[in-house]
Structure formats: C-alpha cells, structure tokens
C-alpha cells in the first residue's frame, strides 16, 4: 500500500465534502452564477448642465463629466456602439439665479434634462431614457422638497410638484421616471399624474424606494451641485439601521404602483436588496452603486489595495447575488468593454 492510500484509509473523505469538482473549470465557475452579468442590465448616469458646450471633469467622481447638450451625442454614440441600452439623466443648472425655493427649473422645457431627452430620442431611437426626479438640484436651499419655515418638508405640495415634473419628463419622451426624493406618497402622485395625462401605459415608474441617508453621496453632490445649504437629509432619507423602515417603504411603493424599485447605496445594503427581491418579487430590482462607493473603489485601486476591474465585477456580482437584476453604475462604460472580453 502506498503512503497516500494509507492516508486516505485513515482519514476517509466524506463523499459530500468535495465541492471543488463543481467549479474547477472556467466554464463551470460561470455555471455557478444564478444570474449572469449582461450589458442590458446597466443603466448609466449622465449629468447634464446648462452650459451647452460643457465637458467638465468632476474631481471627486473619477472619469465622469458634466455634459452640455452640444457634446452629449458623440459621447453617447460611442457607448451605444459598445452596447449601451439605458441612461438616467440628472440636471445640473449652473446659471445665476436659476434656483428657487420650489425648484421651478426642474422641468423647464429649455433646461438641460428636457432638451437632452429630445436630443437622445432623435439620435438613439432604441436607447431607454430614464430621468431622475428630484428637486434638490433645482432648489435654492438644496433640499429634495419644498420646505416649511422650520426646514421640514411640506409633503403634499412637494409630491404635487414632483408629479408635475415627472409628467413633464414623460411628455418630453422619457421612458422612465425615477423619483429619488424619498418624500412619502410621491409614487402614488406620479402614477396618478401619468394616468391623468394618458402616459401611464408608456412610462415606467422606477422608485428609489429604499434610499439611505449617509456618507456615500458626496461626489454626486459635487457633480450635481446639490448639497443642502443647511441641515441634512436625515428626516426623509432612511436611517442606515432602518431595515424595518426599508421594508415598509418597499411595500408602500409597491402598493402605490411602482413598476420597478431601486435600493441605494448598493454594497453596504445588500441585505436590503435581498429583502427587496422578496418583497417586490414581481418587479425588476435595481441597485445604485452610488458616487461614494464608486470613488472609494477607485481610491482603493489607486492605493494598490485592489484591482479596479476585479473589484468592480465583485461588487456587481454582489448586487446580482443579493437579488438585483439592474445596475445603475458609473462603471457602465468600462463594463461595456469588459463584458466583451471576459
Ligand atoms: C437626488 C439624488 C442623489 C443621488 C441620486 N439622486 C443625491 C442625494 O440624495 O443627495 C445620489 C447618487 C450618487 O451619489 O451617485 N436626490
Ligand atoms: Zn434630491
């Protein structure tokens, strides 16, 4: 008897304990995925500003720019050629005096979002165009709703305003509206507004249902110039420990007619993604890998802590494994290339 055989005899291997036979090959490793990353899962955020020729780097948000309408078509064309299917638009008005307490500029027909909808629709008939719906980029105080004297949100007038903005984006041709304000009741108001305007059948309402307050939105607020002047968003975005609140928000938005939901941020909240996949099992679930998460991964890669492509895939797989089937990600341009060669 050889030495090895004796060893095996002495320490018999349980037949069920060997897993590695199931994933020793590159193909069988792929077969382990319950969901496989595809290009069509990616939604790319675009920051559209009111200087038509802008193509401005955003220092805290690596590789992302603020775009003017005159510059956006060639850029989007290069991504569509690589397989881009969907974008989400954010408006960044920078002209003096354009912001006011009620966010009038949000649905200005000559503002950057509505002009971009028209331009993208004309140039890319197959591109799915989503619009973030919020007021913080357009209000003088930088909050996501209309305020009382004491700084709290006036709910009813805010949701009416948000619904009007969403309807105007839909009228301009947006395929989806995505309210990110976190003000109670806005999904119902938006859905009703779309119904009243005969747009509900052709507009997806993708609600940021579980959106947590925290430290991961800094680079976005630099990009969108949307930091609140005073106070913070803790009275409307969810507290990081609020798992029960997130469940209630998901159930509420589902009941109010959301066609899809977003959990945001992504990596720190994957338990909530799993909850969402269970509570909202009949509709698509997106995660938003937000600006701070994205910037952290870049910073870590620059420090040599991790490989950027590797960690980007790992983060994306985390969202998929938790139950997401859509990814809103600043890595979208990279994934459109990476998914060709992996
Ligand atoms: C607007 C909005 C924000 C984000 C998406 N929509 C900022 C905020 O709530 O302050 C964050 C996205 C990101 O950080 O990448 N309400
Ligand atoms: Zn906002």
Automatic annotation (TrEMBL):
Family annotation (SUPFAM superfamilies): Aldolase
A GO term, aspect molecular function: porphobilinogen synthase activity
E.C. number(s) listed in UniProt: 4.2.1.24
Residues that, per the record, bind Zn(2+): 134, 136, 144
Binding residues annotated for 5-aminolevulinate 1, in chain numbering: 221, 233
SMART domains linked to this entry: ALAD
Active site per the UniProt annotation: 211, 264
Domain of life: Eukaryota
Residues annotated to bind 5-aminolevulinate 2: 291, 330
A single GO cellular-component term on record: cytosol
Pfam family, one: ALAD
Catalytic activity, reaction form: 2 5-aminolevulinate = porphobilinogen + 2 H2O + H(+)
Family of this protein: Belongs to the ALAD family.
PANTHER family assigned: DELTA-AMINOLEVULINIC ACID DEHYDRATASE (PTHR11458:SF0)
Protein name: Delta-aminolevulinic acid dehydratase
UniProt organism field: Nadsonia fulvescens var. elongata DSM 6958
